[in-house]
């Protein structure tokens, strides 16, 4: 067993400068983001800082990605807020303890999945559902920041649609100072993200310096807002962050005695799944760019330990953030040493900058969140998915509507249920084709799509789906209809080139068809059976009934045997 991660065992001194620069730049982005995401989760701002120190250190030692940046993320934060709304009911101390339990439970789930090597479970969240969830979550997050941006409160227990109906009439109560400050902050951040780089490049600044300026923009705005707020006593006009405890908390397990924590288990499971899927997706994108490898099961273990560490140090659930990881990667990070350096800077900020951050207007942090999550909104994907596959499009659209209408967790469950249900519906009525021979070749194609040759006494049927309990009745019904409508029939060949699995229900269906055809004077044959399927059929009564003489290597071999034609190489 290796005591040190691979990147540290083979660390090159040449990578130190790149890692140090990337770690510093990422910390510049992370400090205001960490504060903002903690507030988004309904927690004290320092919780975001705590979750950005120990968790990245743990991931650096256990993770398989060299550049994934772990810490508080927007989607997990809004899921935490959703879980804590009813659980804490406005009690700040109970909300904090609940957040620690969510981190502990989600970490425990991830560790358990990793030990059982269940990384494949992430595939049950389809890409359309994940994309729809990210879009809806981003819209929800933007909605949750309206009170901080306007100074007007709304029904925090309502889902997005209900929240907007509740708060919209109250927006007229927004003060001019708050409105101007919010618009100015949002405008500067949007310009920094989407236009500043092009402007600086047009002025002759190098690409690297333009990128650095863009990354520094949130910090510049935070510093400017702090200066203005301190000079004009901003607390008179806008809500401010206020006092932040200096330093880092001691490791503690006192939250374990919180009553009612079992009510958070379901939320923790969803947070674990979404955080893992998001982290793994980002890690894979970055690994492909450098031809590196990410181990899904190791990621489960690393993220599990990371979240448990977050719970012990007073943090909140964490994951690999897209924007933070991309900044880390683009800044030149070579290994996880960059994450360690980022954590060191954040720890320094927790010790040295907490007093300076007290006058920071909360609307600045809200604006940072809004601009950060805009990149998660992807309406283009909805249209492209709908055009390609209506079932996936329905699942994606259903996820978005579900999240906006009913909330984060119900919406996600609706999307996952739709995706699985629609998949079962599509596979329960599989594509079955009668095939014939393309003249002059050994290729066999659908008689409805191609000009092919057929034989009156021979029926070739290709099944283009695995045969299992959900579709076995439909396949049996379809096959018997084809047989009943074919005169002079003596042999039926099931071409199983598209079948990779036959379960017990499918086997029973095939045995029933074999007996039914035999009673009708028709002989059943199989062709192009895949190796794994043949392994399962080897000891069944079906194969004993058919015998190997009626299991053909190819469709052509079956045709040659049943139409008295000699193989071409005979």
Describe this structure in words.
With 570 residues, the protein is mainly alpha-helical. The chain has two domains: 16-378, no CATH class; 432-562, Transcription Regulator spoIIAA (2-Layer Sandwich), CATH 3.30.750. It contains 26 helices and eight strands. A six-stranded mixed β-sheet has the order 4-3-5-6-7-8. The protein has a two-stranded antiparallel sheet with strand order 1-2. Helix 13 (265-289) runs parallel beside helix 15. The chain is elongated.
User: What's the structural domain tally?
Assistant: 2
* Gyration radius from CA atoms, angstroms: 30 Å
What is the first-to-last residue Cα distance? 58 Å
What is the 3D form?
A: elongated
Total number of β-strand segments? 8
Total helical segments = 26
* Low-pLDDT residue spans: 566-570
List the quaternary state of the chains.
single chain
Could you estimate the helical fraction of the residues in percent? Answer: 55-70%
Q: Please, what is the average pLDDT?
A: 87
> How much of the sequence is in beta strands?
5-15%
Structural class: mainly alpha
Spatially, the strands of the biggest sheet line up as 4-3-5-6-7-8
Largest sheet: 6 strands, mixed
């Amino acid at each position: 067993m290796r005591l040190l991660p691979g990147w540290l065992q083979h660390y090159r001194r040449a990578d130190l400068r790149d890692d140090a620069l990337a770690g510093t730049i990422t910390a510049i982005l992370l400090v205001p983001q960490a504060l903002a995401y903690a507030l988004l989760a309904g927690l004290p701002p320092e919780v975001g800082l705590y979750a950005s120190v120990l968790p990245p250190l743990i991931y650096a030692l256990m993770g398989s990605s060299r550049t994934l940046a772990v810490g508080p993320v927007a989607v997990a934060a809004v899921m935490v807020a959703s879980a804590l709304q009813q659980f804490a009911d406005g009690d700040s101390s109970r909300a904090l303890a609940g957040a620690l339990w969510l981190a502990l439970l989600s970490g425990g789930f991830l560790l358990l999945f990793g030990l059982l090597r269940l990384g494949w479970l992430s595939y049950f969240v389809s890409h359309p559902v994940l994309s729809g969830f990210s879009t809806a979550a981003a819209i929800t997050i933007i909605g949750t920041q309206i009170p901080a941006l306007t100074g007007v409160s709304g029904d925090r227990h309502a889902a997005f649609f209900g929240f907007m109906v509740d708060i919209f009439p109250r927006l007229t109560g927004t003060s001019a100072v708050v409105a101007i400050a919010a618009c100015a902050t949002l405008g500067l951040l949007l310009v920094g993200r989407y236009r500043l780089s092009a402007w600086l490049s047009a002025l002759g600044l190098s690409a690297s310096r333009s990128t650095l300026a863009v990354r520094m923009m949130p910090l510049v705005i935070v510093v400017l807002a702090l200066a203005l707020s301190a000079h004009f006593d901003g607390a008179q006009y806008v809500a401010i962050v206020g006092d932040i405890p200096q330093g880092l908390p001691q490791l503690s397990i006192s939250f374990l005695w919180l009553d009612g924590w079992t009510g958070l288990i379901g939320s923790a499971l969803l947070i674990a799944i979404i955080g893992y899927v998001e982290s793994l997706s980002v890690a894979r994108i970055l690994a492909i760019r450098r031809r590196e490898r990410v181990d899904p099961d190791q990621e489960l273990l690393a993220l599990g330990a990371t979240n448990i560490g977050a719970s012990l140090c007073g943090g909140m659930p964490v994951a690999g953030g897209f924007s933070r990881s991309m900044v880390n990667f683009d800044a030149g990070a070579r290994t996880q040493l960059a994450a360690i350096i980022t954590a060191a800077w954040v720890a320094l900020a927790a010790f040295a900058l907490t007093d300076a951050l007290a006058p920071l207007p909360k609307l600045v942090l809200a604006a940072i969140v809004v601009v950060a999550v805009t990149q998660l909104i992807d309406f283009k994907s909805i249209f492209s998915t709908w055009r390609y596959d209506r079932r996936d499009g329905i699942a994606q659209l259903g996820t978005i509507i579900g999240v906006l209408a009913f909330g984060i967790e119900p919406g996600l469950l609706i999307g996952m249920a739709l995706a699985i249900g629609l998949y079962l519906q599509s596979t329960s009525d599989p594509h079955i084709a009668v095939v014939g021979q393309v003249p002059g070749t050994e290729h066999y194609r659908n008689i409805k799509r191609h000009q092919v040759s057929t034989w009156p006494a021979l029926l070739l049927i290709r099944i283009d789906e695995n045969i299992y309990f959900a579709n076995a009745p439909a396949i049996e019904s379809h096959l018997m209809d084809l047989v009943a409508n074919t005169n002079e029939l003596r042999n039926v060949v099931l071409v199983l080139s598209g079948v990779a699995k036959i379960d017990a229900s499918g086997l029973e269906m095939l045995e029933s068809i074999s007996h039914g055809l035999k009673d009708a004077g028709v002989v059943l044959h199989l062709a192009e059976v895949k190796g794994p399927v043949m392994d399962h059929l080897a000891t069944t009564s079906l194969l004993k009934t058919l015998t190997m003489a009626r299991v053909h290597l190819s469709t052509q071999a079956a045709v040659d045997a049943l139409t008295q034609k000699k193989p071409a190489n005979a």
